Amino acid sequence: MDLSFNEADEQFRAEFREWLAANLPMEWRERGFWRRQGEAGFEMRRQWEADKAKAGFAGIQWPKEYGGRGGTPAQRAIYDEEMVRHRAPLTVNSLGLTFLAPTVMVIGTDEQKRDIIKPLLHNEVIWCQGFSEPNAGSDLASLQCRAELDGDEYVINGQKIWTSNAMHASKMFGLFRTSTEDKKHRGITMLLVDLRNPDGSFAPGVDIRPLKQMSGASDFGEVFFTDVRVPRSNIIGKEGGGWDVAMLLLSFERGASALPQYAAFRREVDDIVELAKTVGRDSDALLRQKIASSVVELECLRYHSLSVLTQVEQGKELGASSSMTKLQWSETHQDIGELFTDVAGLAHQVSGDGLDVTDLQQSFLWSRSETIWGGSSQIQRNIVSELVLGLPR
Amino acid sequence: MYFALTDEQRALQATVREFLADRFPLSAVRALYDDEDGDGDPAELWKAIGAQGWLAVLVPEEHDGLGLGLLDAAVLARCWGEGVVPGPFLPTLVAAEAIRLGGTPEQKAEWLPKVAGGEVKLTLATEVRRASRTSFDDGKLTGTIQHVEYAHVADRLVVAADGGRLFLVDPKGPGVTVTPTETLDRTTRLCDVQLASAPGEPLADPALPEVLDRAAVLYANDLAGVARAAVNRTVDYDKTREQFGKPVGTFQVIKHTLADLHVATTMAEHAGWYAAHALDAGLPDARLAVSVAKSKASDVAREATAAMIQFHGGIGYTWEHDAHLFFKRAKREEYQYGDAATHRERIARLVVDGD
């Protein structure tokens, strides 16, 4: 056991802190700042993140040839941790950064590597992911959105749903059914689709509608395709090989430690503790037990993340055990949401009036989505029981 | 950054597991369990483990020990939990820590080499809430301490009395009455210790809080081992046990429960290693880590061993099946050195009150 970071990693931390101190305005770190910015906040974040990338603080683990920093997994973890600690804004291009770019690095053509990675890193192109459909959620392989070959182009008809960032993205990487002849996993192809014209209007045949969530926000959208034409060269991987590409793509999430979630949720617990003091309930024995339970689960999440980080640094394949990480952080975050409502009582319903709990309200509601997206808790438990414990199907 | 056991620690773990499977499998645990007149102290196992040098793990080299850390001792505790190993091993390690941390140079020189050589058995006599009720006056201790592990076979008791001071007491000396009790979990024996003006030899330093933290970590690791064995054994059984024409392990309600228990057990395992390391390295969050580890392991071991009974069906409730060995040990250790709720309140004092 040695939980210290080496000198090079600590040097990186110092450099990044210095950059953040100089480039992250103090008012941006205040509670509720981004909520108050509304739509204008997106452009501010897009630009800030692009500047950060140009300063060398993006694509931490990516090779330098792709504009990355060529850093270590530990530096990536430090980067994530410092971002949360400084209350830096979340990335506006998370799906592209997490999934598309690493996939293109592995299986993209030279043209795709050149055209996709750097513009993505510099936020010149914002990406969304088109996987889920109304009838293909947990059962992703039953997707029906068609892409039919017509000469050198595919013609797409159908619908995607729960598309994160659809309202801001100009391009989509999506899974489409290119054959109904083959077995259902085999007839799927990953294609890159332009959703918007250069002026920001929808591309021909594309329609995007926001989905209003139970929180009132619209982080997801629906994307409709009517005879949308895509050049055949926009395939990632092989025609009919989309399922394998999707599995490769999703594997890039697995190496990620949950240290950022830990840092963010621990701060929420701190806010809830402050709230308990404000409302005079910090000596309530039952609430103290509940607060401590959340701290126990969060600290366990941190230890687990350190273990994951060690395995990644040793080059070990994490495989299905990453489902444990997802279960631990998403379920714990829901418990923290309940902790907030238990501490606030009926006051959790009403923000303002001397008690601003809007952030905690939003986080509480959002936590209900976290056990669904990215593989529901039920799917994660299937994976753990079958692939980790070896229980029969 | 390296959060994992070292190669040496892994080798130790493999050696201990192999040794126990060979020399003290569950059939041997059961023999001791069923021996109604026995003292619950497996003499051959004690000798063998002493000979392996494992009791020397925390004893400094200057006292003929290995001078290793609590993490190494936690590796042993984890293995003992997996094998529901009976005997005064953890009590001896914990009481020896009291002497190492609080003893005079003479006390250390007298007792620690004997601990390292497996020549003496020790135990810590403390009920945290009652510690102050045992009084010390003119070199003599008076009071009653209940639920002291293996006091009936111990060569010395380390008694916490007089508001947390520590004393060495000869259990066979004048004024000491040790009465073994019938314990539900027969992988230990709990005794009542009556002190009536019993001679007590004070240790030099008030090391009790530190000793209790280290004990909590060792028992947390034992519990993590119990939980892991319960999950693994249940998974193995449910892969083959058939009802309605298929293995019961195909049913999602069982799969998902076992998946959750696997996740929770894994978290308890991480927490057990982390807390041991935090104390070894003097990390600033060591006290928090101790309480996280003990509360998590207490809860998980209870749930995992209860599921072990449930997911074996009727056979799991029988005396002849091994499930109750794990269930009863988990239940006993849940309350040793602070139950989950006690440790959560301590976490609340750290996090809410800023103590």
Describe the structure.
The complex is a heterodimer of chains A (393) and B (355). With 393 residues, chain A is an alpha+beta fold. Chain A is 47% helix and 14% strand. In chain A, helix 1 packs parallel to helix 4. Chain A is globular, with a radius of gyration of 22 Å. In chain A, a hairpin with a 2-residue loop joins strand 2 and strand 3. Chain A has three domains: 7-92, no CATH class; 127-241, Butyryl-CoA Dehydrogenase, subunit A, domain 2 (Beta Barrel), CATH 2.40.110.10; 253-388, Butyryl-CoA Dehydrogenase, subunit A, domain 3, CATH 1.20.140. Chain A is built from twelve helices and eight strands. Chain B is of the alpha+beta class and 355 residues long. Chain B has three domains: 7-116, Orthogonal Bundle (Butyryl-Coa Dehydrogenase, subunit A, domain 1), CATH 1.10.540.10; 122-202, Beta Barrel (Butyryl-CoA Dehydrogenase, subunit A, domain 2), CATH 2.40.110; 208-351, Butyryl-CoA Dehydrogenase, subunit A, domain 3, CATH 1.20.140.10. Helix content of chain B is 53%, strand content 14%. Chain B is built from eleven helices and ten strands. In chain B, the strands form three sheets. A four-stranded mixed beta sheet of chain B has the order 1-4-5-8, with helices on one face. Chain B has a four-stranded antiparallel beta sheet with strand order 2-3-7-6, with no helix packed on it. In chain B, helix 5 (89-102) runs antiparallel to helix 6 (105-116). Chain B starts with 6 loop residues before the first helix and ends with a helix. The interface between A and B is large, with 49 and 48 residues.
List the helices and strands and how they pair.
The complex is a heterodimer of chains A (393) and B (355).
Chain A: H1 7-23, H2 33-37, H3 40-54, H4 73-85, H5 94-107, H6 110-121, E1 127-130, E2 146-150, E3 153-164, E4 171-177, E5 188-194, E6 206-211, E7 220-231, E8 235-236, H7 242-251, H8 259-278, H9 285-313, H10 322-344, H11 358-370, H12 377-388
Parallel strand pairs in A: 1-4
Antiparallel strand pairs in A: 2-3, 3-7, 4-5, 5-8, 6-7
Helix pairs in contact in A: 1-4, 4-8, 5-6, 5-7, 8-9, 8-10, 9-10, 10-11, 10-12
Chain B: H1 7-23, H2 26-34, H3 43-52, H4 70-82, H5 89-102, H6 105-116, E1 122-125, E2 135-137, E3 140-149, E4 156-161, E5 165-169, E6 176-180, E7 190-199, E8 201-202, H7 208-240, E9 242-243, E10 246-247, H8 252-281, H9 286-310, H10 323-334, H11 340-351
Parallel strand pairs in B: 1-4
Antiparallel strand pairs in B: 2-3, 3-7, 4-5, 5-8, 6-7, 9-10
Helix pairs in contact in B: 1-4, 4-7, 4-8, 5-6, 5-7, 7-8, 7-9, 7-10, 8-9, 9-10, 9-11
